[in-house]
Amino acid sequence: MAKFSKPAGTLFTQISSGIYKGKKLALPALSSTRSTKSIVKGSFFDTWRAELRGAAFIECFGGSGAMALEALSNGAKNVYAIEKDAAAHKIMQKNFELFGLGANAILGDCFERLSEILHELQADMNGRSAANSSGSHTVNSGENSVSDPARRVFVYLDPPFAIRQGFGGIYERVLVLIARLGSAQCELLIAIEHMSELELPPKIGDFALLKSRKFGATTMSYYAR
Asked: Which residues are within 8 A (CB) of 30 and not within 5 positions of it... i.e. 6 or more apart?
């Protein structure tokens, strides 16, 4: 599990890479959330660090928001975390406030709020594109806008392994959620942290499986269009 300490009954973890390495983050109770293993987190950021710079990052089932804040530490421009448990969200919001991002710690159901965040990001991207196109400079027609990190969004999904109240059929709902993201007009990379015993399909809607890597009981699977 992620490295944590327990001074005075409070659980903590640390940002392990990037410009905020060593920064302490509070953790919710282990009975309500599950921390990402350090080896899994390290593998994700070692794989995608270059692509994260300047991109947006949305963490679903956010818990403490540690993955989103680790993404911020590694160069992501906009980071969000969504958590439906009120007690966990309160801790997550305090973590985000350490970086002046309290409003990006969102209390709610990711099945409802993810599309709203993507819509807001898309509107911002389109606004910047319109402003750039109205400038006096000329954009090289050979440039591929999809490779622009400002139009890149990482969606990190870490549904609970142990089914708790309100999480029945969680993986089926996650697959439906991903399939619905196909209409987003930006470069999307989907990361799913899931039980290794679960075999995900080679395609989910418009998204194809790039690769999977197993870490004991946990597997990371990546999808993109």
From this structure: 11
Query: 4-131+147-224 is classed in which CATH architecture?
Result: 3-Layer(aba) Sandwich (3.40)
Domain boundaries of the chain, sorted by first residue: 4-131+147-224
Q: List CB contacts of 160: < 8 A, sequence separation 6 or more.
A: 33, 34, 61, 167, 170
Neighbour count for residue 1 (Cβ, 10 Å): 12
Neighbouring C-alpha atoms within 13 Å toward the C-beta of 172: 4
What is the enclosing helix (H) or strand (E) of 95? helix 86-97
- Give pLDDT tens digits along the chain (225 positions): 444 444 445 789 999 999 999 999 999 876 555 567 889 999 999 999 999 999 999 999 999 999 999 999 999 999 999 999 999 999 999 999 999 999 999 999 999 999 999 999 999 888 876 777 665 444 343 333 446 888 999 999 999 875 554 455 899 999 999 999 998 889 999 999 999 998 999 999 999 999 999 999 999 999 999
For the chain, how long is the longest CA-to-CA vector?
A: 59
* Helices 66-73, 38-52: inter-axial angle, 10-degree rounding: 40
What is the sign of the dihedral through the CA atoms of 191, 30, 83 and 101? negative
Q: If we measure between CA atoms, which residue out of 97, 94, 56, 103 comes closest to residue 78?
A: 56
Q: Which residues contact 38 (CB under 8 A, 6 or more apart)?
A: 1, 2, 3, 16
Whole-model pTM?
Answer: 0.86
